[in-house]
Structures are given as C-alpha cells and as structure tokens.
Amino acid sequence: MGIKKDYSDATAASGTVTVTNKGADGDTLKITVTEPYGTVVNLGTYTKVSADSTVTLVAAALKLMINNGTVTHGYT
User: Fold this and answer.
1) In 3-state terms, what secondary structure has residue 50?
2) Is residue 70 within a helix (H) or strand (E), and if so which, with residue range?
3) Distance between CA atoms of 30 and 62, rounded to whole angstroms?
4) Fewest 10 Å CB contacts: which of 15, 17, 44, 49?
5) What is the DSSP letter of 36?
C-alpha cells in the first residue's frame, strides 16, 4: 500500500510543515495529506495550550501528534 522502510531500493515521500507563529491558546491546526486518487488522510488536530509557549514547542507538539498517530494513519 505504502512504501515501507524495509525496502532498501525505495524512496518514501516526505513533506514539511513550517511553524512561523506560536498562535494563541485554544487555536487549532489540522494537518492533512492528500494521497494519489484524492484520498485525504487526517494526521491529527492540534490545539494550542499555554505550555507550548514558543514556536519550537508548538512544532514539537505537532511532530509528537503526527508520530503518535502513525499506527492509525501510517505517516511519521
């Protein structure tokens, strides 16, 4: 279905989300991927909390959200 890490000759797709603003507490951000043939996969929805007080902390929270959902959506 997707490219697995156990195929030595394969190149997995990648993407980037650039976080440029920490936002306000309560702000939400939904990250999705549109796959071939138009299937949209939800990688998660993040809600800004006060502990995420810098752009770096927000980015780390987004990364954790995506990676925690890998078992469900298959993305890291």
Assistant:
1) coil
2) helix 70-73
3) 10
4) 15
5) G
- Integer Cα distance of 36 and 56 in angstroms: 31
Two tokens at 14? 């990648």
Cβ atoms of 8 and 29 closer than 8 Å: no
pLDDT for the residue 36: 86
Instruction: Give the model's pLDDT for residue 5.
Output: 61
Q: Which residues contact 48 (CB under 8 A, 6 or more apart)?
A: 22, 23, 24, 25, 26, 27, 28, 29, 58
Name the phi and psi angles at 28, rounded to 5.
Answer: -120, 150
- Contact by Cβ (8 Å): 57, 51: yes
Q: Which residue has the tokens 């976080």?
A: 19
pLDDT one-digit tens code per residue, 2-48:
555 666 666 667 788 899 999 999 999 999 999 889 999 999 999 99
- 39: tokens are 């299937």
